[in-house]
Specification:
Elements lengths: L9 H5 L10 E2 L2 E2 L5 E2 H13 L5 H17 L9 E2 L13 H13 L5 H14 L7 H17 L4 H13 L21 H14 L2 H17 L1 E2 L2 E2 L20 H17 L3 H15 L9 E2 L4 E2 L2 E2 L4 E2 L4 H21 L1
Antiparallel strand pairs: 1-2, 3-4, 5-6, 7-8, 9-10
Helix pairs in contact: 2-3, 2-4, 2-12, 3-5, 4-5, 4-6, 6-7, 6-8, 7-8, 8-9, 8-10, 9-10, 10-11, 10-12, 11-12
GO molecular function: transferase activity
Organism: Mycolicibacterium hodleri
Protein name: Glycosyltransferase
Length: 338
């Protein structure tokens, strides 16, 4: 995976003030009036924590995002998701996706080179994992976070319990060989369902669950590919027989697929995983259904959506973080291969 671009944090830093990262942008300009969200700040913590020898600005992002998650966390471990531009929370704590993504961010931050970040992240993780969620993606993100923590603190009790509860709750029965997916339709952040099964199966020594996760991911990589490039399911999802390609395609689908392929490549030597990771990078660089780049390499800003006739060139937080995450994963394997 030679020649992978270097992740650039310029635009993410431009989108961030002393409270957090603004959720939306008009082109490259932040839109403070739309405020901040915990989903994004958990992703900021992920990409900031992955950086080796992080620059001072990236260290600041790690500490800022960790503080935001601490403020978002309720005493029972659940999370608020939305803060307005004045710094007021405007929703109630839940165990929906913001909870799961926060645990993902905190588990990843346990790998941080910054001691204060690492210790605080583990403490927040232990409080958050007192809860469980009925939502499949929330639990999948949380399971990935637990696997990240176990990678640096083997046997950590809270992480072990969460991962075991996740694994015990996963039920994949009567899989249709023509549609081997646990939902009637692909929805959003689809690959995290495969990644969580893969991670849980590997960490817990459950080969059937590991095999199920890898099989799901292999099918998804094939399903999301067309004419030699990625063609991800659109924002409205996709079911059997839906017309292809479909739009509006979102960068989060590509980055979630890249994360899952990177984890699979750490566990299994099948070439499909690094090929999927390379295709994810290529999608951002223009190997997609309309042949247009989906990021600004000068600033690291990610574009918000791919339509049949154009690119949505607004550079919101989610899209920018999707680019950063994908490039980080690809460069990790590039470094290994050199």
């Amino acid at each position: 995976m030679t020649g992978t671009p270097v992740p650039r944090f310029d635009h993410l830093l431009r989108m961030t003030d002393e409270r957090g990262t603004f959720e939306h942008a008009r082109l490259s300009e932040p839109r403070p009036e739309h405020g901040y969200c915990t989903d994004d700040m958990a992703r900021v913590l992920v990409v900031a924590s992955r950086e080796r020898e992080p620059a001072p600005a990236v260290q600041w992002l790690a500490r800022l995002s960790l503080g935001f998650l601490s403020d978002a966390q309720a005493p029972d471990g659940s999370y608020r998701n939305r803060m307005d531009s004045a710094g007021r929370w405007i929703d109630e704590p839940t165990v929906e996706d913001c909870w799961g993504r926060s645990i993902w961010g905190l588990g990843t931050a346990a790998r941080s080179e910054l001691t204060g970040v690492r210790d605080s992240a583990i403490a927040q993780f232990e409080l958050a994992t007192q809860r469980r969620s009925p939502w499949p993606r929330a639990m999948a993100f949380a399971a990935v976070g637990a696997a990240e923590l176990l990678g640096v603190v083997p046997g950590h009790p809270a992480a072990q319990r969460l991962l075991a509860d996740y694994a015990d709750a996963v039920v994949d029965v009567d899989v249709n060989p023509d549609w081997p997916w646990p939902e009637a339709r692909l929805r959003y952040a689809n690959a995290v369902l495969a990644e969580a099964r893969t991670a849980a199966g590997h960490e817990l020594g459950r080969p059937e669950l590991l095999r199920r996760g890898l099989n799901m991911l292999a099918w998804l990589v094939e399903d999301q590919s067309a004419a030699g490039h990625l063609s991800p399911s659109p924002a409205d999802g996709r079911g059997p027989g839906d017309e292809r390609p479909a739009f509006d395609q979102q960068p989060i689908e590509v980055s979630t697929l890249a994360d899952a392929c990177a984890r699979a490549a750490d566990i299994d030597d099948g070439p499909i995983w690094t090929a999927g990771l390379s295709a994810a990078v290529a999608w951002f660089e223009g190997a997609n259904d309309i042949g247009e780049p989906m990021w600004d390499p000068a600033t690291g800003g990610g574009y918000d959506g791919l339509h049949a006739d154009r690119v949505n060139r607004n550079q919101g937080a989610e899209s920018t973080l999707a680019v950063l995450s994908t490039l980080q994963q690809a460069r990790r394997f590039s470094a290994v291969s050199q």
